[in-house]
Write a structure and sequence with these properties.
Layout (H helix, E strand, L loop, with lengths): L2 H32 L23 E10 L5 H11 L3 E10 L2 E11 L4 H10 L2 E8 L8 H14 L3 H10 L3 E5 L18 E3 L2 E5 L5 E5 L7 H17 L7 E5 L5 E7 L4 H10 L2 H8 L6 H8 L5 E7 L5 E10 L2 E8 L8 H15 L4 E7 L3 H8 L5 E6 L2 E7 L16 E5 L1
Antiparallel strand pairs: 1-3, 1-4, 2-3, 5-8, 6-7, 7-8, 9-10, 9-17, 10-11, 11-12, 12-13, 14-16, 15-16
Length: about 425
Amino acid sequence: MSDVTRAQQGGSVRTAVRAARDGFRRWWTRRHDLAPPSGDTGARSLPSAQQAGPSVESSLWRMRTTVKDEPGSLAALCTALAGRRVDILSLQTHPLATGTVDEFLLRAPADLMAAELTQMVSQASGADIWLERADAHDLVDAPVRVLGLAARTALDSSELPLALRQLLGRCTIRQLPAGPVGSGRAAPDVPDEGALEETVMRLRAPDGGVISVERPYLAFTPTEFARARALVELDARLGPRLPLGRDVLTLPEGNEITVRRADARDLEAAKAMHERCSSRTLGLRYHGPVGDADRYLSHLLSPRFGRTLAVQTASGRIVGLGHLLWDGDETEVALLVEDTWQHRGIGGELLQRLVSLAAEARCASVYAVTQASNTAMVGAMRGLGLPLDYQIEEGTLVITARLEEGPARGELSGAGEFGRVEAP
């Protein structure tokens, strides 16, 4: 097919889409203008299909489908959607070697089920249909959303996994560290430009390892691959970075402590805190041999795997660490407070802040793994005021807090019992 022919067909398709949408909007407006007033009792006797109007409850859907690469195919699909009062809020096209994949953001009547929508699209020549619920975040224009993710990544290196997840939807992101050849830990060899294999993309990580992104239910498009690669390249060019903000808090006895973000540059200070902690405190935190505690720190302090908050004294000594760890679709929280600084509310303050970070990242829940005898951690989780689930197996306790059902997200970031001084 020549470039001229393809351009002519593309122009006719765009014209058909605009015509279908304009026709639908005129139809919708006319239905609204002719609808009886809400106080008219006659409206109650009308069939539900005749009571449609802007006040009808609706649902947002993200849909991806392949449409035949011929004039009129996309217009037929848009007309079918309009016939069921489905509004097309946005449309992106992903050209492939074998055709074009169209991605829609739809607003549909709440009573239109996924199976009905899929069947309707299939009958209108759509193939390889993928459908999932959307939310208000999906209403943001795609280029604006990508720019926003890039800005967040530029400010904070720990944002990269979250940015990739929000860019690509539900996916599993793994970082494979670089290791010496023959160690069994070396990341697979990936070209500098990355590699795309349908549902898996692999990108060169800034530290020499590999970032693997997998989405089994839906193949990645070249456009998505290019956007993801651009975010990773931005992260590599900027190097290690953390937000500069920190809070100075006053403990009940009058001592001041500082809460700030931490990363691998705090490794030696974190190891020194380990040396000052008792075996019992380290055992409650790491659930294993105390001698192995130090080897976890490099992973925990890496922004590739989550976010870390450090509590330090006026002299600069770290006396507490809180970790928020990305674990696929789930998120883990973990706390460690030096023995002589325990029972002063530091653990609860760290936990409140970690959960607020999780809420800002749109995590649905957070979980903590501890021992049933760790009453301090149990109390801190209960102090969140969120719905909690408990699972106990052979002395190990997993507490899950569901963020979507708790207080408003802004309410999780309160200062608790501490006085607070904001510091730049």
